[in-house]
Amino acid sequence: MLKSYWARMSPTRKRMVVIAVVIGGVLALVTALSTIGGNEKRKSGGKQTIGNVLTDSDPRAVGLDAINATQRQQQKSLTDITRNLKTLMDSQTQQQDLKEGLKDLKAQVNDVAGQLDSTKQTAEQLKAENQQLRDEIKENQAKAPPPEKEAESQQKEAQRVRDQAAQQRYQQAGVDPNKNIGAFFANAPAPAVDPVKPGQNAKKEDRLKITSIGAAAPEANKDKSKEEDVYLPAGSILSGAIITGIDAPTGSTARKDPFPVLLRVKKEAVLPNRFRADVRECFLIASAFGDMSSERAYMRAETISCVRDDGGVIETGLDAYAAGEDGKAGVRGRLISKQGAILARSLMAGFLQGVSEAFSVRQVPSINVTGTGSGSGSSSNRVVSPVYEQAFNSQALQGATIGGTGKALERIADFYLEMAENLYPVIEVDAAREVDFVVKKGVQLKLQTKR
């Protein structure tokens, strides 16, 4: 019956039936296997049965991943324990520091308490001494004489002190009175006062005045200006800056007629033996000339001028030379010369003159041998007058033009040569350059006027 039914089925149904049977068999097999190995913990006789073949524990628990996980967990635990221990140690250290700080604070408090006790004792002693002084003052005031007698006694004491001082001065001057006669008589004690007899009025005290004649006292302000003067010895250094720039000439007459330059002193003058002179903000007039070989501008100081705070004016000559930033005499500058351009122009004019002569024409002298011309006498003795020819033609005009041009170019070349002789190079020095002046000869900065 199954065979006949199977034979009558179509291929599609057969395929579906086969697939259904295979799926059902697989499901049955899976179900059977799950029922066989699903209960790992079967108990037999009150004891746990062995669920694993090789070991009593799960094989996955003894793998590399499990070991690594366990190691990481242990490492984390150790890290936490270490952190906790460090925290505990830090807290213990802080507690120890706090304890030491508390000990120091207690010691300071004890010291302050001791100082307070000593201060209290001192205050009590001072209070007792003050009270004792008050009692003594009251006793002295009670024993003191009345104000009238006290004033009289003070006057007598002052008179006694004056007499004693006068007697002492007299004795000092009396050792050798011939050397100091004025002091001898000026310090002599007053004569004794005659006693007043009973019934007589007291005489008026006409004190004898002794005048000593001696040398006139020197005027106090006579040498005051000398004391206020400042002396700059040789070798002193004045540091300043150039206010006006310099175009120092280098010609042969430059040293005889140098160019002026203005400088401002910016620092205190450095004197020998580490002394200083306050000449700040003073002005310095110098003369400068250039040297083409060294390309430096040499400056000589001429005048220094200052105005003091009280209005006094100082103006005096100064002999000093300038030194540049490199420490050498003179200030290095830029050599500027305009002779090259002038000489180039003169050379160009001469060259054009020579070129113009190439286009010039020259007159060639000739002798007339034809015998033509007018004359008088026989044919053998006839005198022939000179023959004249017209010179105005194109060649003569060309020669005249070229000749005039050549002479003009020659004059231009001479003019440029003369200009080049009058020009000379200059040494250019910019403003605001730092310059040091060294004093060659000591000078007294005298006070000229006073406002």
How would you characterize this protein structure?
The model is unreliable at 212-218 (pLDDT under 50). The chain has helices at 2-8, 11-37, 64-143, 147-173, 181-186, 224-228, 339-358, 394-422, and strands spanning 43-44, 47-48, 230-232, 237-242, 246-249, 259-265, 269-270, 276-277, 283-291, 296-307, 313-323, 331-332, 334-336, 375-376, 383-384, 426-429, 434-439, 443-445, 447-449. 45% of the residues lie in helices and 19% in strands. Among the domains are: 151-186; 230-337 and 432-449, Lipocalin. Helix 7 (339-358) packs antiparallel against helix 8 (394-422). The strands form six sheets. The protein has a six-stranded antiparallel beta barrel with strand order 4-6-9-10-11-17. It has a three-stranded antiparallel β-sheet with strand order 5-16-13, with no helix packed on it. Strands 1-2 form a two-stranded antiparallel ribbon. The chain has eight helices and 19 strands. The protein has 451 residues and is an alpha+beta fold. A hairpin with a 2-residue loop joins strand 1 and strand 2 (47-48).
Shape: flat
Query: In the CATH hierarchy, what is the class of the domain at 230-337 and 432-449?
Result: Mainly Beta
The CATH topology of the domain at 230-337 and 432-449: Lipocalin
SSE string, helices as H and strands as E: HHEEHHHHEEEEEEEEEEEHEEHEEEE
State the distance separating the first and last CA atoms: 156 Å
What is the count of β-strands? Answer: 19
Radius of gyration over all CA atoms, rounded: 66 Å
Total helices: the number is: 8
The residue fraction in helices comes out at 40-55%
Strand ordering within the main sheet: 4-6-9-10-11-17
